[in-house]
Predict the 3D structure of the following.
Amino acid sequence: MAKTLREVAEKAQAVSLVTVTIDGREVRVPEGVTILEACRMEGIHVPTLCYLEGLSAWGGCRICMVEVEGQPNLVASCVTPVREGMKIWTSSKKVREARKTNLELLLSNHPLDCQLCDRNGSCELQELAYQFGVREIRFQGERKVYEVDQSSPSVKRDPNRCILCGRCVRTCREIQTVCAIDFANRGFDTVISPSLGLPLGESVCVNCGQCILACPTGALSEVSHVEMVWEAINDPEKFVILQTAPAIRVSIGEPFGLPPGTVTTGKMVAAFRRLGFDRVFDTNFAADLTIIEEGHEFIARLKQGGKLPLITSCSPGWIKFMEHFYPELMENVSTCKSPQQMFGAVAKTYYAQKLGIDPKDMVVVSIMPCTAKKFECQRDEMCASGFRDVDFSLTTREAARMLKEKGIDLKEMPEEDFDDPLGISTGAAAVFGATGGVMEAALRSVYEILTGKTLERLDFYSVRGMDGVKEATVDINGMEVHVAVAHGLGNARKVLDQVKAGRSKYHFIEIMACPGGCIGGGGQPIPTNLEIRMKRIEAIYQVDRSLPLRKSHENPAVQRLYEEFLGEPNGERAHHLLHTHYVPRERM
Amino acid sequence: MFYRAHVLVEMTSSSVALGAAQVKEQLEREIARAGLGNEVKVLETGSFGAALPSPFVVVYPDNVIYAPVSVRDVRRIVEEHLLKGRVVRELLFAGERGGGVATFIPPSPLKKEKRVVLRNSGLIDPLNIEEYIARDGYLALAKVLTEMTPEEVIEVVKRSGLQGRGGAGFPTGLKWEFTRKAEGEEKYIVCNADEGEPGTFKDRLILEGDPHSVLEAMAIAGYAVGANQGYIYVRAEYPQSIRHLEVAIAQAKERGLLGERILGTSFSFDVKIRRGAGAYVCGEETALLESIEGKRGEPRVKPPYPPQKGLWGKPTVINNVETLANIPPIILNGPDWFRSIGTPTCPGTKVFTLTGNVNNLGLVEVPMGITLRELVFEIGGGIRGGHGLKLVQTGGPSGGTMTPDLLDVPMAFDTLPRYNSALGSGALTVIDDTHCIVDIVKNFAEFFLHESCGKCTPCRVGGKRIVDILERISAGAGSPEDLEKLRYLGQHMKATAFCGLGQAAPNPLLRCLEFFREEFEVHVREKCCPQGVCTMRPKPQPKKTVRV
């Protein structure tokens, strides 16, 4: 993450100040900040479209224009650094006209059918048109018409709604280093496209959906499973089971007006129960299960000299990234399925048997903070029961929309509990939702299993937080176990390149495709920015602290699952149901 | 081998297209047939630099120009002139000859010409480094490496007052100084040969005719700023420039004039060629850098400017071909000599390319400060077909629009902006009065729409809307409000576009809307095109009474 407000504030202490005049008011701002940053420090929120905190400034949309005395042309405030003595006007006639005209020009090549758009109500273009009071478009002319790209199982691209701000391109390149999309063609024919004009589904796109979070309009959105889920719910022949990911309970309040970081577990369960699911279970149960499987895999590799470092496999965006860009590290990656898939496999075997239901009549729906989960659940390998482990995967946004369609206000819901037995989980599972969480949960269990001692302090602070790469060393029976945590694929690359070069000291690495981990996933409510990510992370640890059990191996439902059905961790049945394999993929 | 005569054949890309290669082959055949193979040698040269008809042949040392020469004419030239010593009068060049015998007196057959940049073009074989060296080539490099400090070199260039010939006219010495002073171990020299302005082809002819002058200057620049690597970014549509550069670089390296430890000093400098893929915007210096780095050719955010952060983020000098070709003579003759040419505020010469509805087409190098009238009506020989002058577009579509009222303005970087015009790269596109102003402006606007990189809203969409409106007007569907919209959009684009391309694109539109207001008005009010160019009915002419 390049330039965050925090860094700007830090800069303010480190460097000298300059005096500039903003709208006639003299202010002192740190040298080197842009006009935009200076204005924001002074409480003037200059409107922007192509600017996005955390990405390199680009200066293309020309919405953030301001007037600088002595300069013949207006300047884009997002890319112009302040200079001593600068006199800046942010709402002069010239500035207002220029901004409005550029907005009108963008709108003149836009469908203007807001009611039919996925982002109706959360669109920045729409919001600016309202703020600027655009009532007519003076400059009409040809409008570009493109085919909508629905080739990807996760991300839908509608270039007709694209305003070419490049935020998706920069996110994909700078944050994720995937570079699946870029600008193609020139001038009025410019369009954002996967390489060689291929459909997104055939590209190196890892389905992380960070581009959707970055998109100011409805040009990028998830491939919706909403209709299929309604159909299943309304089908009396189907037994429809819901699982909710660890990160949903700290974010789904936002679309209902609750502040970011509000824990809504009980209300969420009540709301989804009212939506019509036959059972409301928790992916956290499967997260505990994952820790048992992955923990034992790690212990086995550690003891038997297997391939190290072991790298986590919970994040399907990361898995596809690995298959494209680091296939040589395939054997380092845990063979464990992700919690979503483990849940589905257990539901359609163990739980189906318990209920005496044919798995073919069972529909497993997940609510995930993630778009890559849509891709993951349709992978050919993911059919432990002979049927899809998970049938449909909704994003947090889709789930909120379904609730709203039915007229359920999450805020007004009572607190209810998950159903038994697949709704029982520990604090270790809860922290899966934040970067470092899987590592922390694994360490809590691995330590106790290997040493036979009880951990005194459960909190591993060094693997928490928004630093891109975090490290920790844990003493287990006199052995120093080195672990690393990376979130965001650009950060992952740094660690992976070390491993590839043989320069890594790590035994165990957690990788999450999205910045902040799942709470910052591509399926989360919009906006998702640094500030909101940090609030959701706080909430995740609040959930952890509030639970009576905080170690996965203490989960009684998981223990019963092994006793009644699976046998040994990493045993034959567990392997068949809960583990998977990967396929190398082309880079083009 | 000593030859009693040399026959120089101009072999620029355009001459070749007109049959120069066949003329050269025929000359060689006829000379051999006449048994003169040991006495007369045929040489390829670059452009002769003047607005001359091609193919173009000079017999040296007789200084006789034959132009244009066809394959059929060759036998007579060989048999009469080379064998018998009799000039073939009917084939003589008819430029400024005034009926007499035109003689090739270097540097030019045109009186007003002053050749600095084109000092060798047309005179030497560009593929032979010996000929360049014989004309004091690489002497300036030797001088700076052995007698001058880098600071002294920069001082000389600064004092010469040389300004960038790519169009912007930024002082070259200052650019070098900024780069020298910028922090960084590695620095680069980049030669911008991505000549994309329609109507401009000077850089191509300089590179084809005298590639070493540019290489030598790049090495001098490298020494001055502390760079050891140079890149020449040439558009791929210039295969002959690229071939000549490749040969020149190889020859210079062979002789120790490029590469490791040049002339035995501790200074090393290498030059690599990079081909542009044809995007106009890559002539913009930062888009060019992106392109060299293998990225999409889009302009960068400025500041930082290239002297601070250029190629691969390192301090970089980017100079135009013509700018660089001025450097060796400035070093050898001194800044005062350079200042004695041109105007006090804009010293030196400028290479102009004459195109359009003018009698003499081609390249001419003249002192700065010459008037457009001299260029068009004296050197250019006036408007073709006896028509009147409508306008001259200087420096291509992004440059300035010179209307007939500005014919006597001295042409220099500092004078033209006073008339909302610009010298630009030196292209002079002469347009006669049979053309329709809406059509002309539409043509320019379409060019920019095609070449816009698409990054910023005002250029990408605004440029498109300008074309949309102009199309409407020329189809007879325009309204008076459209003229106001055009003016508004033009000014908007100028004020808010990201880079120089978008900011300059509306210049011709805005100027023409003002100067040719009436013609625009007729289009939108009377829905007719006075010139009968637009696809609507022409303006009804008053009926003439036919007398019997």
